[in-house]
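ok so i was messing around last nite and threw this chain in just to see what happens. nothing serious, just curious
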Amino acid sequence: MPRAFGTSVLVVNVLFCLLTVWQSGSNPEDFASKIGFGILNAGGFNEVRAQYSGFFLATGLVCLRTYQYRPLCHRCDRTRIGGCRVRLGTYRQRVSNRTATTKNRELPMASMQCQPYKYAATDFGNIAYREIGSGPAAIFVHGVLLNGHLWDRLIDRLIDMRRCIAIDILAHGATGARTDQDLSFDAQASMLATFCDAMKFEHVDIIANDSGGGIAQILAAKHPERIRSLVLTNCDTHDNWPPEGAGPLHHLAEQGRLGAIGQQMLDNVDFARTSFATGFEHPERLSAEDFRTWLEPLFRTPESTRNIERFITSFDCKQTVAVEPLLRKFEASTLVVWGTGDVFFPVKWAYWLRDTIPGVRKVVELEGAKLFFPQERPDQMATALRDFWTLRSGDV
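result:
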């Protein structure tokens, strides 16, 4: 619609330009008088006619340009036309490492935040995911109460290196679950393996955070042949979970009271920021839209609310403790990136992973970063990932 409006303005101005030239040619004195220049000699009139016509033509072009570049997505400020891509003239630019500059900022020519959901049919149900970029497949696995949108800002910085896939785990985001379905970490890991089958992925890079990190460890331990590389950020590890700081969340889930709290967070952004403050360095920067994106799917119906409560009450570290012997045999290239300000998972667990998994190449500490730093510190995380993927043996 905006593009059509700009085009219409241009067409009207061009027609007015032609009318101006015709009228001025047939009766130059009358025309000059009407526009306030009085009686001009032939040379002066020709100069005014050229300037006046040029003015209207330029106005039309400016209108088209102005309406052509504007944010259309309700969730991001990326400039786009007909989707989240920037169209220059009549050409569609494919996703690449090129950037478009807006107000002295460099923005990706495509945004993960605006990619539509797709679904992979599996034995666990239809698994929701979004994807962008090109190259080897990389699956990003989020944790409890969030969904794949946690990774959007990070993924925007990686689309030239990987086909980035942000998955919603069972009972989160756009991935549903039956009311009697197993939602444990073991089941979630099996779902990821089945998802890879459905997508026909022989090998994948896995990047995981929080609960997703525990799930990813189980996947890597039980299906090492699937994993090209593994990246773990602050997450459930061995017997460090459920963390003591998450006790109130577990009590609410056990008592069936999580739905009321979830609705309160949706209704009151300040309450939501306070509730999530332990996981973010700057909760004040989280918007109401962020919380709607994460929480609305969880608390949309009594069934979805009960499923998230069931997921939380299924937390049992026996699942990750059981795979320790297998992790000690896991040799795929592994990177550990850990925020040192996390109250749930202290940095010592980064080094437990280093000492347990033979494939760990490096531990990167992010000073002061909290649990959900992939959203808050996408540049630092992207640098660590790009260096890791570039240096790891056999990268393609």
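not much to say yet. The radius of gyration is 28 Å.
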